[in-house]
Design a protein that fits this description.
669 residues, alpha+beta, 5-stranded mixed β-sheet, 5-stranded antiparallel β-sheet, elongated
Length: 669
């Protein structure tokens, strides 16, 4: 009994010792607390747990950690330690540490031994404290030094056409400035420079007043492209003007490709907020429109970043790389566009507003996308005055509007599509003729509204005659005969009402504002391209390719590496009907009564269909703006061009557009 009591007493004493020891933190527990604070970046709490505070002031610890981690943009910080094996009666005080983090230069990982020591405070309590040195920030800082960040800007990718002509390239530009010692008539020269560079004289005065400017100093004022020889010659004739060559963005085709290619400009605060913080900086340049904006992610490249430890304690400054992300230049983009064709088509507009799209109907490749008028992308890239920007915005011809991406009323240019729909559903029979008398046609219940045709027929009207003379009444009657369900379904088969499957965002072509046709007058008008129907020039050109591909439409493409000759819409009409339509489209050009007989040129045999779209607020309205269309292709079927010119009223309607298209083909063949 006495022996049992002794054992119990010893056991209770041991339990008491364990309980007492458990009240004190072990080195492992203390380190875990330190690591938890580290991962949360609670640097002030970490500082209270280091043993050598006298060697490192708060600024050398807390402020330094915060600054360095902020500068290198530390994320996903992870700190782990292992408990080493020790003798049975020995407690560990040194632990192998593993640290990993993501930074602007990529992932950083390092291993370090961390030691703890017991220190007794003034109250006689002991605890474990970390023996710290700057190597725990980064090992390369163990002996002192600072962290530096070196960046390398990527070269922006270039944009080329199908023939390797540059659309947006990195080329020599001029940094234009003045040299004070060269002024002959300072005030007069400053005014002329200001006028030519579109800057204020006050800006020149401010630049010249800088502390660093001397008599023979080059004082930069503005970057300009080298493309306008006459402008450059006049500018450099000013005695005080000098230049330095540099590399910048250049748009060799200027206005002709402006809406297609776009331009680059300094990133705005709003754009900076939308982008990943690590990808862009405050003074970066970014694509603003067109392909420059569309392919921004591929073109911009990735900045190279190097984090280095800079040690200036030696006789010579030395640096050690902590992490490095190599620079990645942007990708080059090659598109299917033929820049010389684009230039020819753009020039054909002259001062007129409108749009044109050119495709290869066999492959679906886009050869030209034109919007007129346009802006000079070189001007917008290198700075444009507020007054000139407002002038562009207020121009009644809207040079900032991208018309090839927009939709318009097609007028009679839609009649071949209506024909294809009618041929396919049996409403239109090639040899069937209908009696149409007079220039107008109406139905009971239509009130005062009537469909009007341009010319009377000399007898019953069949499909060929209706297309050659562009008979509105014929197509209005056929639309009413087939009914809204059949017409809507047919138009949907041609891609109306669905997103246009294209790399560049193009507005969706629509049948009506609601997508349906629930009124008979609207049904009749839709049959000949009036009503509420809207279509893009690219979609219209693509739709006509059904006549050249035995009823199939190819998927439209823009990038040269996209797979071409892929069928988008299949069997929209039979091969027999496709051949029939091709014959009629040729006759529209060759027939004396054909609406496109001005396109009957010697250079090449053309086929096509005209259209005059009347823009009116209501069906009863007369007069107003008219847009003229012509969709045409040559006998080798190498391209389909769809052109629309605005405000052709009092200029011959669509005949005005026909002449422009005929002139384009005269230049091409």
């Amino acid at each position: 009994m006495k022996r049992l009591m002794m054992i119990a007493s010893i056991s209770l004493a041991f339990i008491g010792l364990v309980a007492c020891s458990n009240d004190e933190e072990t080195a492992e527990e203390r380190l875990q607390t330190y690591v938890n604070n580290w991962e949360k970046e609670n640097f002030s709490d970490m500082y209270q747990m280091i043993a050598n505070q006298e060697a490192y002031e708060t600024e050398a610890f807390v402020d330094r950690y915060e600054k360095i981690y902020n500068d290198v943009e530390v994320t996903d910080l992870s700190v782990d330690f292992q408990v080493p094996e020790t003798e049975e009666d020995e407690l560990p005080s040194t632990f192998p540490l593993e640290v990993s983090m993501n930074t602007i230069a990529g992932q950083v990982q390092f291993e370090q031994d961390i030691s703890l020591t017991q220190i007794e405070n003034e109250e006689g309590e002991t605890n474990w404290y970390v023996q710290w040195d700057p190597g725990f920030i980064f090992p390369a800082l163990a002996n002192g030094g600072d962290v530096g960040i070196e960046t390398t800007s990527p070269t922006r990718g270039e944009i080329y056409d199908r023939n390797e002509n540059g659309l947006a390239v990195n080329a020599k530009i001029y940094s234009v400035g003045v040299q004070p010692s060269l002024f002959e008539n300072e005030e007069e020269e400053k005014q002329k420079i200001a006028d030519m560079l579109d800057i204020a004289v006050e800006s020149i005065d401010e630049a010249l007043a800088a502390d660093w400017v001397g008599e023979n100093t080059f004082v930069p004022l503005k970057d300009i492209p080298t493309t306008d020889d006459a402008f450059i010659e006049e500018l450099f004739a000013i005695p005080s003007v000098v230049k330095q060559d540099k590399i910048g963005r250049s748009y060799p085709y200027g206005k002709a490709t402006a809406h297609l290619v776009g331009y680059i400009g300094q990133i705005t605060a709003e754009e900076l907020e939308e982008k990943e913080e690590a990808s862009y900086k405050q003074n970066d340049r970014i694509g603003k429109r067109g392909l420059e904006q569309l392919f921004e992610a591929q073109l911009k490249g990735e900045r190279g970043v190097k984090i280095v430890a800079e040690d200036e304690s030696e006789s010579e400054a030395q640096s050690q790389v902590i992490a490095e992300k190599p620079v990645q230049d942007g990708e080059n983009i090659t598109v299917t566009i033929d820049a010389e064709l684009q230039q020819t088509v753009y020039n054909s507009f002259g001062k007129d507003a409108g749009t044109a799209s050119v495709i290869n109907p066999k492959t679906g490749e886009t050869l030209a996308l034109v919007s007129s008028p346009a802006f000079d992308p070189n001007e917008l890239t290198y700075g444009i005055s507020q007054s000139k920007w407002e002038e562009l915005q207020n121009d009644e011809q809207s040079p900032l509007t991208n018309r090839f991406a927009a939709t318009f009323s097609p007028g009679s240019s839609i009649k071949p599509i209506t024909s294809a729909i009618g041929l396919s559903n049996g409403t239109i029979k090639p040899d069937e003729s209908i009696e149409i008398n007079g220039l107008t046609w109406s139905k009971d219940g239509w009130g005062n509204y009537a469909v009007r045709r341009v010319s009377p027929s000399s007898g019953p009207v069949d499909l060929t005659d209706a297309l050659v003379r562009s008979d509105n009444i014929y197509f209005a009657q056929k639309a009413v005969e087939m009914g809204s369900k059949a017409l809507v379904s047919g138009l949907q088969n041609f891609g109306f009402g669905e997103d246009f499957p294209y790399t560049y965002p193009i507005e969706t072509s629509t049948i009506s504002s609601s997508g349906t046709i629930d009124e008979e007058i609207l049904l009749a008008d839709s049959g000949y391209g009036q009503g509420q129907m809207q279509v893009s020039s690219l979609h219209l050109a693509t739709a006509y390719s059904a006549f050249l591909n035995q009823g199939n439409i190819m998927q439209p493409t823009l990038k040269l590496d996209e797979k071409d000759s892929v069928v988008w819409k299949e069997s929209l009409l039979s091969s027999e009907h496709a051949d029939l339509m091709k014959g009629i489209l040729r006759q529209i050009v060759t027939d004396a009564n054909g609406t496109a007989n001005q396109a009957d040129i010697d250079a090449v045999n053309l086929s096509g269909k005209t259209g005059t779209a009347e823009l009116k607020a209501s069906q009863d309205e007369t007069g107003g703006q008219e847009n003229g269309w012509f969709v045409a292709y040559p006998d080798d079927e190498s391209m389909v061009i769809s052109m629309m010119v605005e405000h052709v009223e009092d200029r011959g309607g669509s005949h005005y557009t026909v002449e422009k298209v005929a002139d384009i083909f005269n230049q091409l063949y």
